[in-house]
């Protein structure tokens, strides 16, 4: 049930790259300020590792998911312990019970065990659904921002870069807009929180 931030990051920002490429491929007309990135083809990149480390929304999202995961894990663990205690109590008193009482108790414990397994699976599925919903919302926030940012700056392509990702082995530091993007995203998020 533990949701790994790295897999969350890879999925989310992989989607961001695809969405940003699609969003920024449309032709833009009008006056554009001459910047070094426009002069080099209007291509810039965002360092994904830095974005995830410094974007407050992502930190809050990760904390929300971790809190839900911990709560679900504690709840499932408490239910499992309660069932185990009942089973141990049954084993201690089984010799003193009649055959009918043993059969009834065993059926009840079996049913509780099956109900617990169903509950555990549902809790895991709910955590997955929550993670997908959060990832989608995160992707949409960053993607919408990237579209507006690209339009404002006259960029034609906004890529993401992640250490160890073979899709982008090198990017000229002059094309790295991560600091500005993180600053603006955090400013927008701070306004949204109020």
What does this structure look like?
By secondary structure, the protein is mainly alpha-helical. The chain has one domain (5-193). Helix content is 72%, strand content 5%. The protein has 6 helices and 2 strands. It has a two-stranded parallel ribbon with strand order 1-2. Helix 4 packs antiparallel against helix 5 (99-153). It is rod-shaped and about 85 Å long.
Q: What are the secondary-structure elements, in order, as H or E? A: HHEHHHEH
**General shape:** rod-shaped
Count of distinct structural domains: 1
Give me the secondary-structure category. Answer: mainly alpha
Number of helices: 6
How helix-rich are the residues, as a percent range? over 70%
| Radius of gyration, taken over Cα atoms and rounded to an integer in Å | 26 Å
How are the SSEs ordered, and which strands pair?
Blueprint: H1 5-24, H2 36-39, E1 43-47, H3 48-54, H4 56-93, H5 99-153, E2 157-161, H6 178-193
Parallel strand pairs: 1-2
Helix pairs in contact: 1-5, 3-6, 4-5
Overview features:
194 residues, mainly alpha, two-stranded parallel sheet, 2 strands, 72% helix, 5% strand, disordered N terminus
Describe this structure in a few short sentences.
Helix 4 (56-93) packs antiparallel against helix 5. The protein is built from 6 helices and 2 strands, in the order ααβαααβα. A two-stranded parallel sheet has the order 1-2.
């Amino acid at each position: 049930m533990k949701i790994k931030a790295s897999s969350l990051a890879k999925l989310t920002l992989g989607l961001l790259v695809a969405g940003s490429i699609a969003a920024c491929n449309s032709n833009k007309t009008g006056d554009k300020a001459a910047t070094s990135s426009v002069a080099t083809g209007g291509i810039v990149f965002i360092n994904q590792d830095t974005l995830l480390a410094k974007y407050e929304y992502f930190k809050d999202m990760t904390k929300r998911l971790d809190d839900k995961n911990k709560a679900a894990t504690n709840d499932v663990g408490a239910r499992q312990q309660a069932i185990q205690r009942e089973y141990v109590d049954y084993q201690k008193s089984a010799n003193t019970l009649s055959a009918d009482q043993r059969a009834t108790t065993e059926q009840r414990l079996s049913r509780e065990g099956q109900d617990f397994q169903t509950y555990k699976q549902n809790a895991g599925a709910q955590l997955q659904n929550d993670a997908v919903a959060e990832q989608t919302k995160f992707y949409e926030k960053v993607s919408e921002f990237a579209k507006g940012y690209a339009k404002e700056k006259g960029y034609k392509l906004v890529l993401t870069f992640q250490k160890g990702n073979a899709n982008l082995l090198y990017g000229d530091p002059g094309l790295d807009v991560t600091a500005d993007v993180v600053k603006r995203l955090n400013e927008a998020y701070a306004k949204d929180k109020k």
